[in-house]
Amino acid sequence: MEKILVTTDQSTNSKAAIRFAVKLAKQRKAELIILHVYHLLKPFNWSDSEFKEYGDAFREKIATELTSFIAEIYHDIHEPEIQHQLVLVSNIDVVDGIMQYAAKHDCSYICIATRGAGVLTKIFGTHTAKLITHSHIPVICIPSGYHLKELKNILYASDMTDYERELVKIVAFARPINASVEMMHISYPFEFSFDKELMEATLKKKADYEVTILNKKRDITNTLLEDIEDAIKASKSSLLVLFTHQSRSVFEKLFYPSNAEDYSFYGKIPLLTFNKNEN
Questions:
Q1: Which among 24, 94, 222, 258 could bridge 226 via Cys, Cβ 3.0 to 4.6 Å?
Q2: pLDDT tens across 24-62, in order?
Q3: What pLDDT is recorded for position 192?
Q4: Three-state DSSP class for residue 63
Q5: In degrees, to the nearest 5, what angle opens at C-alpha 133 toward C-alphas 128 and 136?
Q6: Which of the 8 DSSP states describes residue 43?
Q7: Alpha carbon distance, N-terminus to C-terminus of the chain
Q8: Strand 3-7 relative to strand 153-157, pairing
Q9: Structural domains of the chain in order of their starting residue, each with its CATH number
């Protein structure tokens, strides 16, 4: 059974990710794990037994608060509670705690809420940015203001260098939820123009799934991410997919992890990122 991991710090910001993860787990008939990473500093004058007693009391308090926090979210989305596992993990680094737990327990996806980051936050990094950059497990970033809706149309921004292998991962995500897949290529004027109908027929055969092609011309007055935003609005996409390894194609800057991070800071729909290095 698939495992979907969603992180929470009990903030209002994290509610969007939990709402999304609940619905996704229900659709995919997956196990839902709700993870809270914490760190306690031991006062130098405390004995081991005193610190253990404090830690046990702290975890019991957090577990009670999280149970209430999650119940409130279920109430807000008018959904009966699905079976889920509430996990507390101690780690000095939140992102390391998330990645280590996800890897150890073979989680399929990591869900995390994100919101617009200020200049200082972007300089020093965010948990979302670090996950996108370092996680070997696909990360789904949910904007904190995102309103829960059906995932009907997945937009896959491709650099056309490894799309057959990448489509396998996207179709694996799309098939259980019956979402359509649209592969977008942003082309420069000097690039070779391919036959749309022939390409779609070839992709359907190789991916065993309906995949439509969106060949968008590059607008040099826009950034590449702005071109993607225009495509999202035009196609009414409900989720964007990016592969974050640095590609060698003319679109390599689009696929730097930093650009996926930038999208997560201001995007209006969920962002699913895969590490291009992963088979």
A1: 222
A2: 999 999 999 999 999 999 888 999 999 999 999 999 999
A3: 63
A4: helix
A5: 100
A6: P
A7: 20
A8: unpaired
A9: 3-143 (3.40.50.620), 153-274 (3.40.50.620)
Strand ranges of the sheet holding 211-217, from the earlier edge strand across to the other edge: 84-90, 31-38, 3-7, 109-114, 139-143, 271-274, 239-243, 153-157, 180-187, 211-217
> How many other C-beta atoms lie within 10 A of the C-beta of residue 69?
18
Q: Would you mind telling me the total number of residues written for the chain in this entry?
A: 279
Burial of residue 161 (number of CB atoms within 10 Å: 0-12, 13-18, 19+):
middle
Expressed in percent and rounded to 5, the helix, strand and coil fractions of the chain are: 45, 20, 35
Q: Is residue 237 helix, strand or coil?
A: coil
Q: How far is residue 191's CA from residue 204's CA, in Å, rounded to a whole number?
A: 23
The enclosing H or E element of 27 equals: helix 15-28
Residue 239: its H or E element:
strand 239-243
Residues 6+ apart with CB under 8 A from 55: 40, 90
State the pairing for strand pair 153-157/239-243.
parallel
DSSP state string for 71-133: HHHHHHTT-PPPPEEEEEEE-SSHHHHHHHHHHHTT-SEEEEEE-PPPHHHHHH--HHHHHHH
Predicted local distance difference test score (pLDDT) of residue 147: 85
Residue 119 has what pLDDT? 41
- Quickly list H helices, 108-256: 119-124, 127-134, 163-174, 196-207, 224-235
Q: Is the distance from CB of 273 to CB of 263 less than 8 angstroms?
A: no
Q: Give the Cα-Cα-Cα angle 95, 242, 128 (nearest 5 degrees).
A: 20
pLDDT < 50 positions in the chain: 117-125, 246-257
